Amino acid sequence: MPNKLASGTVIQRRYRTREGDFTKTKVWYARYYVNGERREVATGTENRDEAIKFLRRQMAGLATQIGGEPERVRMGDLFDLLLAWYAKKERRTTYDLKYMIEKETGLRAWFGNIKASNVTSSEIDRFIAWRRQHKPRPANGTINRELAYVRRALKLGERQDPPLVGRVPKFDMLPNGDAREGTLEHEQYRSVRDALPSYARIALVIGYHTGARKGEVLSILRDKVNLKAGRIELLSRSVKNKHARFLPIYGQMGPEIEMALAAGNPACPFLIQRKGKRVYDFEKSWATACEMAGVPQSLFHDLRRTAITNMIEAGFSEKEAMEISGHLTRDVFDRYHIVSERRLKEMASRLEIHMRAKEEEAVAAANGSIQ
Question: Residue 244 and residue 226: Cα distance in Å, rounded?
């Protein structure tokens, strides 16, 4: 098993005073892990930025000790470094990154033992071919996001002092297809819902009714669900655009959320959990349920278009729908081209009446001029 680079953070130790109270040290400590073993060293400074610089020097030094020269560093080491960097920066997408690295078809499965210096255009092409063999076949956009994380890991290694990566190859991304226009009909929603396990079922119900993103739904905290007030608070750190907002609780959401709260482990702060632990994704369960429901190509993100379509059909203004869905600009909202068959007929009927009136006015004017 290859050695791993250290990954860590800076902390202020907690200790008990003579009076029995807990307090923190003024001096910062560097805490990092090497091959699963935790190490903790005093940085000798009370300045957090200086402590972070100390930690980086420690990590760079350890990288050299364990063979951190660019020609010997493996991608698994860089993925560890990237995860530590995301955690330190408190990135909202840390759990997305971890999932894409650690899942069965993740980045570590293919790239983990490959030397960073051996990541070439040919190796990237082989990875793409490997991913396209999986079922359900991932969209080009999904593969592009995975490749973006590989590139980011390489660039992070390149920025280390001393550098852990000699060069970053060019990444030719796959073409993204046309924007999806699919929605989930109500009967299809019911079929998928009934085929899902409980932890994925509640996510579907919330997504279908509110149009919230999957990451937003999975990050909902138990104590931010207010059944009495009929709303769910989404914190800014869990929202893509960093704008906190509320989701309404209505219809089937109330009973489903109440059951999820009752069945969940109070020790886990998240609403959506499995066996008392947070759920990061449910890709396989979703694919199986959609297959059983006869909509194998459906994505969770289709619920976003579905919810917005339902809101518009229910008479919501576009601004009101955007407030719930979390869209900030019309440019993004317009990409969905939300025009249902019923609305299209209604608009055509209104235009027909309008044009008929114009034609009658024109005929009347022509007859008047003749007389």
Answer: 16
Q: Can you tell me the distance from the alpha carbon of 329 to that of 1, in angstroms, rounded to the nearest whole number?
A: 49
**CA nearest 206: which of 240, 243, 241, 256?**
256
Among all chains, which residue has been given the structure tokens 């490749």?
Answer: 147
Q: Is the peptide bond before 175 cis (omega within 30 degrees of 0)?
A: no
CB 190 within 8 A of CB 242: no
Task: Supply the pTM of this predicted model.
Answer: 0.57
Compute the chain's Rg from CA coordinates.
27
Listed residue (124, 182, 176, 132) closest to 150, CA to CA: 124
Extended beta strands in the chain, E state: 7-11, 14-16, 22-24, 29-34, 37-42, 225-226, 231-234, 245-248, 273-274, 277-278
- pLDDT tens digits for 81-140? 898 888 887 776 787 888 899 888 899 999 999 999 899 999 999 999 999 998 878 888
How far is the C-alpha of 321 from the C-alpha of 231, rounded, in Å? 15
pLDDT value at position 244?
85
Give whole-number Cα distances, 170 to 76, 139, 147, in Å: 20, 21, 11
178/246 Cα distance (integer angstroms): 31
Decide: residue 121, CB within 10 A, 0-12 exposed, 13-18 middle, 19+ buried: exposed
**DSSP assignments along 15-73, one per residue:** EE-TTS-EEE-SS-EEEEEETTEEEEEE-S-S-HHHHHHHHHHHHHHHHHHTT-STTT-
Contact status, residue 206 vs residue 199, Cβ threshold 8 Å: no
Residue 10, beta-bridge partner list: 30
Instruction: Report the C-alpha gap between 273 and 350 in whole angstroms.
Output: 48
Q: What's the pLDDT tens digit per position in 14-66?
A: 877 777 777 888 888 888 766 556 778 788 788 888 888 787 777 665 555 44
Amino acid present at 347: M
Tokens matching residue 172: 């030719």
